[in-house]
Amino acid sequence: MKIFLPFLIFFTLIACKNDPKKEEIDTSAPLSNQEEILDSLRVSDRNLDAQQQTLNIKRQELLEKKDSKVEMEKLLISKSFLKEGDWYTLDFKYPYLNQKIKPQFENFNEYISKYYLDAKGVEKQILEEKRLCDSLGIPKQNEKRMVDYKIYNLNNRLISVLFYKENHYTGAAHAAYTFDCLNFDLERAVFMNYEDFFNNGSEEELRDILNTLLKTKINSGEMYYDCWAISADDFFDAKNNFVVNDDVVEFYFDDCVICPSYTGTYSIQIPLEMLMPVLRKYKKNPLIG
């Protein structure tokens, strides 16, 4: 069974395309006619104060999301890592599982240690990485990478971990966010990926479901101006970036993938009943039965 791509990939930031074209949702046309939708990224005429206000709301919604840390007190060991260099600060928070409960949880802890706490690798990538949107490209000076996590527990059978990284770039108007998710089967002590939950070849069908929900949000107005449809390439890159929380599966996307950093959302929640046509039907799938 495939394991998630090494967590180190999380620290390779995906820059917004230089070509300012995105797959914009035409709210007057059905999403099934994506090929007829003109690609364009509308430049917002809203002032910086309004953008900062919506950015703050968007950020607070992420930080204040409730998770299962309290109810997982016996299972979960929260740890932290801080390193300050001359031109960067790394401030990471991450979970371990209590191996006294089940020795096989060592699989989870070793994975975190090997791919997550690689400070030298992160430092190298900070030097080499491209900037996300809203960055002025000014040489790096005391840049910050702050990582925290949310964790969810589904019936003591599956844990879903959302890692969110707050990237402070020199010269950027505000922080940009990137995400990575892990799903771990507590009973078998193994990681699970997209194909363990969803049918093989179901990516386009699931992308249509996500875009339908996103279109509804865009039509509602509010904070979703300047957002666009999820492209096939972007969904393929992010298809393992989801967490399971009760009867909802929530997919996360980096800044500038579905919305600019100053508006919209980082994630789209899909009710479980909408996913029934694409769920893989077998006993090891925690979303079935």
TrEMBL record:
Residues 195-272 form the DUF3298 domain. Signal peptide: none annotated. Transmembrane segments: none annotated. Pfam families: DUF3298. This is DUF3298 and DUF4163 domain-containing protein. It comes from Aequorivita antarctica.
